[in-house]
């Protein structure tokens, strides 16, 4: 139903509802009175079928719609919609209203024209007869308006059938609907005319593919999504959506003629909503309303209520002409908001997450918006704040870690013990938090008249809550702007305010807002023209447990020279609180130190002023809740700002605490909990005591003394916690219950059998949402599951596929086949003809083979043969792909490291990510395997682990580069990206603090310090395909493999490059990975040519075959009595017991793609030392260990370096 926003609007709504519900007999519209239609009148015909969408109908005269005046094309759908833009493929069948696109819907339902079941006609008509007919219809509805259209769009749905789904409804057999929509436009306005002839509507419900039951049609208008950065539902107006009102569409009218409904849809009056005509039927056309009928109005309108507020939100208010007010329900979420803002803790049908202790609540029915006529205020649809708004039907608005309490005027949510937040959003006290989002900006730098624009830039933040310290990184900031944004630490500082350490009686931002608020800040640089405006929107906790933020920057900033550093002294800021609004303003300084020139580094101190306003929703019903202090002081120190020019990343770090207003530095008088000197574990909360006393308390889901906290395995300790027919999966700080196949969660939170779940083949029944058969295929996978995939030559997610340009490999294929007269690649090829193989993305397959000779070789991304890789027939070389797989569109994956839990783990590389697999003894805890780090668009090959600093190092052959990341958390960094060819194996000397790597393209082995500096080439002769490399740190030895197909070998040398010799050369095929076990002094390797794993003690000549018959091993590591290797054919990690020469276990990652390097992340370093482990061995630069000594070496580039080499 439509909503009104004024007294007159309320009266109109009352009349409109009465017209729809209480229509009387009269002269109905005949089919002959419809606008002329059909091919004879120039109509186009929509392709027959289900869920069809027309090509764009280009208009000669722009259509106006809501606040838009430039709609130059429309799209017509089978399902009773005229769309203002092309509907997304996923919305081709009816779903929740409103859609994401602008829409005029005279009868939105799942309609079908398959096999001649009706037709859909459409055209633009500028003829005088049709424009005059439209003008007369509009004139009847709006007699005070003078309107003469220049263009008319006529769309006719003739005898269309209902879509009935897999089980046909006999009652709808033979039922057909005919109706028409006309859009008339002049220079200044547009109108819609809906026509419903007598007996034109024979059915009012259709089968919903989404809900799998019959749902009523909808007559409505929708503006679609609005906003530049923060997309949200625009205005929309629902006119009819139940059987009673739909039945009366042909019997009543708002324009004085039965079956004809007129609406003003585009003019200055429609910015906030469509304006309906308001002409009642004459005495002869409708029923006379007596007082008794009038008194029943409230009962009737309540029955006609809008859709459930739990599934739809409405921009309340369909104003009359000239009215501009819109009424909103602040606590009701739109479908897209409901998916993003409230999904934290919202279970899927078969999976639910828990964090104990916490209550389990049955799933609640969505709240209902009552429809009341309020003559005093003119608000027809109002948010009901009476006794009906209780926890009984609103429990879903609270976090699963909150309790709901009823009060006299409503309900409030509050977090349970051990959690913090505002009740709508709660997180475990003391637990580290992550914030992810996007940044866009349009910024002028200095006096430049050309703005620097950027968008879709990632923001990631990591917060150590019990220290109040936030680390924020914003990626891909242009170099021309990066340094000039250094003073703007408060961009990330708002995250610090959210999780500032709370002093007794004071609240940080998350406790107040739950991470759901908007912030607008204005920055004025004293003595500099212009200002910068910062707009940020925080949308609460997402389904991954991360907070989400969108940021927009616009304005002007002073220019800061390239290479400068910025220092910001500790500062305080006063936050002033009132109902749902927080304000603050401050003036502070920053110092810019420019790069050194001629021995001088000039520095300048500048002043800037900050003003900000934060708006949020608070619960006003709990009068017993302690009031916030009207003013709180945020204290910020240890401010760190940095712009990394190479990586184009802007970094901000700040420590924050919130407390009373005070002067000077109170640190000496404060509790360690407030100033971050407590030493509690990152998964612990600090509890202040008297004076400087405090205690550390592990967060919910962890156990320990607070100084060290360990994850509680609820699944092991409480085997029945998930109940019967469920599987329990442990996660850090929480666990997840999943119903077994054939069961689902009931409203009570238990797993119950799925009844009558007959498999439906969505592909053959046409119920799928894949793209058209010419672009995509639907593959049925059993039950109710299916997969959409684009056909060769197209790219996308299968639901929307686009034709792609042919790659170099595909072009070469076509050229060779065309020249040989074999246009069909499936036809037999003549002997001796080589045709390159391309992968599913069109790139060259890294291993190419000649079908006739059996020879195989490696190629680079351009298809050129890599020298020295051609193998004899019957053996495939272990070639590496240098092209990363395409990144699928969707939510961006955070690139920050997820901190590693205590214990020993296997780390393995899988294309664009590194995963961790915990070990318990020698057993792989496969159910706890998780992604450690996502680095999309990279192919990670080698891995090495530094047990001292808990860092993982890797090689990437796509850029190429060498990178590292801390396992404590934070963003990955690139340490080497110059002068690399194909870096593959990587090893680390944790005592001498050096890394070593092989480069199979440059055919050399290099060494550098752990930060990538002081590079030196150790070997660059007699190497063909060096790959695996490993160190023996305590003895100062280095070992590596070379899978040279003519002369494969395993070599060794001292770490300084001396005493090089071949260790193994006989009976080798393609030696790939190798590992050295410091405890047993065994060197082991895996060979993809001989399909064996072997070991030897380097000081003894004999070698031992550990296991034969391996598939295609790539990399290997050791721990305890086991070897663990990655296998290319099985895409798995395999555990082998060295003592009994037997495969013990296999782990198959969820994502079945090629696995590369593997290493062991030890919980503590092996005991021992070498001659470089103390004071860098007395060396000025590189210290390289040797057995019983060390050698001091200089880096290769020693220009201007004061370096001393000695043994």
UniProtKB/TrEMBL annotation:
One of its GO terms (cellular component) is basement membrane. Residues 1-30 form the signal peptide. SUPFAM superfamilies: GFP-like, Growth factor receptor domain, Thyroglobulin type-1 domain, YWTD domain. Disulfide bonds join 849-856. Residues 806-879 form the Thyroglobulin type-1 domain. LDL-receptor class B repeats lie at residues 950-992, 993-1035, 1036-1080. This is Nidogen-1. It comes from Daubentonia madagascariensis. The lineage of its organism: Eukaryota, Metazoa, Chordata, Craniata, Vertebrata.
């Amino acid at each position: 139903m439509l909503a009104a926003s004024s007294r007159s609007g309320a009266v109109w709504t009352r009349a409109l509802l009465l017209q729809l519900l209480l229509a009387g007999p009269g002269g109905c519209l005949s089919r002959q009175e419809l606008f002329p239609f059909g091919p004879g009148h120039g109509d186009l015909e929509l392709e027959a079928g289900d869920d069809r969408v027309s090509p764009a109908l280009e208009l000669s005269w722009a259509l106006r719609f809501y606040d838009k005046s430039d709609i130059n094309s429309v799209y017509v759908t089978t399902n009773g919609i005229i769309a203002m833009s092309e509907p997304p493929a996923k919305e081709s069948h009816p779903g929740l209203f409103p859609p994401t696109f602008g829409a005029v819907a005279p009868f939105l339902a799942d309609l079908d024209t398959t096999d001649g079941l009706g037709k859909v006609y459409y055209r633009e008509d500028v003829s005088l007869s049709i424009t005059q007919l439209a003008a007369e219809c509009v004139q009847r509805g709006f007699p005070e308006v003078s309107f003469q259209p220049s263009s008319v769009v006529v769309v006719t749905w003739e005898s269309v059938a209902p879509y009935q789904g897999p089980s046909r409804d006999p009652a709808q057999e033979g039922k057909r609907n005919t109706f028409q929509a006309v859009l008339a436009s002049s220079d200044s306005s547009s109108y819609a005319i809906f026509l419903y002839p007598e007996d034109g509507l024979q059915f009012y419900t259709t089968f919903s593919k989404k809900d799998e039951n019959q749902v009523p049609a909808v007559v409505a208008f929708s503006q679609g999504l609005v906003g530049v950065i923060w997309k949200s539902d625009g205005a929309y107006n629902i006119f009819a959506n139940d059987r009673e009102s739909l039945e009366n569409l042909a019997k009543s009218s708002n324009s004085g003629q039965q079956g004809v409904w007129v609406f003003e849809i585009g003019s200055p009056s429609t910015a906030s909503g469509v304006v309906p005509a308001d002409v009642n039927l004459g005495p002869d056309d409708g029923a006379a309303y007596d007082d008794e009928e009038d008194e029943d109005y409230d009962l009737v309108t309540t029955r006609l209520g809008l859709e459930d507020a739990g599934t739809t939100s409405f921009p309340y208010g369909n104003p009359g002409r000239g009215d501009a007010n819109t009424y909103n329900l602040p606590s009701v979420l739109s479908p897209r908001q409901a998916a993003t803002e409230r999904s934290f803790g919202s279970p899927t049908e078969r999976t639910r997450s828990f964090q104990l202790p916490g209550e389990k609540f049955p799933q609640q029915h969505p709240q209902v918006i009552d429809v009341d006529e309020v003559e005093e205020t003119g608000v027809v649809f109002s948010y009901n704040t009476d006794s009906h708004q209780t926890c009984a039907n609103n429990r879903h608005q609270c976090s699963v870690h909150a309790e709901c309490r009823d009060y006299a005027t409503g309900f409030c949510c509050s977090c349970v013990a051990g959690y913090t937040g505002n009740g709508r959003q709660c997180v475990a006290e003391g637990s580290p938090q992550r914030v992810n989002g996007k940044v866009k900006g349009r910024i002028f730098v200095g006096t430049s008249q050309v703005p620097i624009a950027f968008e879709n830039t990632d923001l990631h933040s990591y917060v150590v809550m019990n220290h109040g310290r936030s680390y924020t990184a914003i990626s891909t900031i242009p170099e021309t702007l990066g340094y000039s944004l250094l003073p703007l630490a408060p961009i990330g500082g708002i995250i610090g305010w959210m999780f500032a350490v709370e002093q007794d009686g004071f609240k940080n931002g998350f406790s107040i807002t739950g991470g759901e608020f908007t912030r607008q800040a204005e920055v004025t640089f004293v003595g500099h023209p212009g200002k910068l405006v910062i707009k940020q929107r925080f949308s609460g906790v997402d389904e991954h447990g991360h907070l989400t933020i969108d940021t927009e920057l616009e304005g002007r900033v002073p220019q800061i020279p390239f290479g400068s550093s910025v220092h910001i002294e500790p500062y305080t800021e006063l936050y002033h609180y009132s109902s749902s609004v927080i304000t603050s303003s401050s003036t502070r300084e920053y110092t810019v130190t420019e790069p050194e020139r001629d021995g001088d580094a000039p520095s300048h101190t500048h002043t800037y002023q900050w003003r900000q306003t934060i708006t949020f929703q608070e619960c006003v019903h709990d009068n017993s809740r302690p009031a916030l202090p009207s003013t709180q002081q945020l204290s910020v120190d240890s401010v760190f700002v940095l712009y990394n020019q190479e990586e184009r990343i802007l970094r901000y770090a700040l420590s924050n605490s919130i407390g009373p207003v005070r002067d000077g530095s109170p640190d000496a008088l404060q509790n360690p909990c407030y100033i971050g000197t407590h030493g509690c574990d990152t998964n612990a909360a600090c509890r202040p005591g008297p004076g400087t006393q405090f205690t550390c308390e592990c967060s919910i889901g962890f156990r320990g003394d607070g100084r060290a906290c360990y994850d509680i395995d609820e699944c092991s300790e409480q085997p029945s916690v998930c109940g019967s027919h469920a599987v329990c999966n442990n996660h850090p700080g929480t666990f997840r219950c999943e119903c077994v196949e054939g069961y689902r969660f009931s409203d009570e939170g238990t797993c119950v059998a799925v009844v009558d779940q007959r498999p439906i083949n969505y592909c053959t029944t046409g119920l799928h949402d894949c793209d058209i058969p010419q672009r995509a295929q639907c593959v049925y996978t059993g039950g109710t599951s299916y997969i959409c995939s684009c056909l060769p030559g197209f790219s996308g997610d299968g639901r929307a596929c686009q034709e792609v340009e042919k790659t170099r490999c595909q072009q070469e294929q076509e050229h060779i086949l065309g020249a040989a007269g074999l246009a069909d690649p499936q036809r037999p090829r003549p002997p001796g003809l080589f045709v390159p193989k391309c992968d599913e993305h069109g790139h060259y397959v890294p291993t190419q083979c000649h079908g006739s000779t059996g020879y195989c070789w490696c190629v680079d991304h351009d298809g050129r043969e890599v020298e020295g890789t051609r193998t004899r027939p019957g053996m495939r070389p272990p070639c590496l792909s240098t092209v990363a797989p395409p990144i699928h569109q969707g939510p961006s994956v955070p690139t920050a490291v997820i901190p590693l839990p205590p214990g020993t783990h296997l780390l393995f590389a899988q294309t664009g990510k590194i995963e961790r697999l915990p070990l318990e003894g020698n057993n792989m805890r496969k159910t706890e395997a998780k992604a450690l780090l996502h680095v999309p668009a990279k192919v990670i090959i080698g891995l090495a682990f530094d047990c001292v600093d808990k860092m993982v190092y890797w090689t990437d052959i796509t850029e190429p580069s060498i990178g590292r990341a801390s396992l404590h958390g934070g963003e990955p960094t690139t340490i080497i990206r110059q002068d690399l060819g194909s870096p593959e194996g990587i090893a680390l000397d944790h005592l001498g603090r050096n890394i070593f790597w092989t480069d199979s393209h440059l055919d050399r082995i290099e060494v550098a310090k752990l930060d990538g500096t002081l590079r030196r080439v150790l070997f660059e002769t007699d190497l063909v395909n060096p790959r695996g490399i490993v160190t023996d740190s305590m003895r100062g030895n280095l070992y590596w493999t070379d899978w040279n197909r003519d002369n494969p070998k395993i070599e060794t040398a001292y770490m300084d490059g001396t005493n090089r010799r071949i260790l193994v050369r006989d009976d080798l095929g393609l030696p790939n990975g190798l590992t050295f076990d410091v405890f047993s002094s065994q060197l082991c390797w895996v060979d993809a040519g001989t399909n064996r794993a072997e070991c030897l003690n380097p000081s003894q000549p004999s070698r031992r075959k550990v296991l034969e018959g391996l598939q295609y091993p790539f990399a290997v590591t050791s721990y305890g009595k086991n070897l663990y290797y990655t296998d290319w054919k099985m895409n798995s990690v395999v555990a082998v017991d060295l003592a009994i020469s037997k495969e013990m276990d296999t782990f198959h990652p969820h994502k079945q793609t090629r696995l590369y390097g593997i290493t062991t992340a030890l919980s503590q370093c092996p005991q021992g030392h070498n001659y470089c482990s103390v004071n860098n061995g007395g060396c000025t630069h590189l210290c390289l260990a040797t057995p019983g000594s060390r050698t001091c070496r200089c880096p290769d580039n020693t220009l201007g370096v004061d370096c001393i080499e000695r043994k």
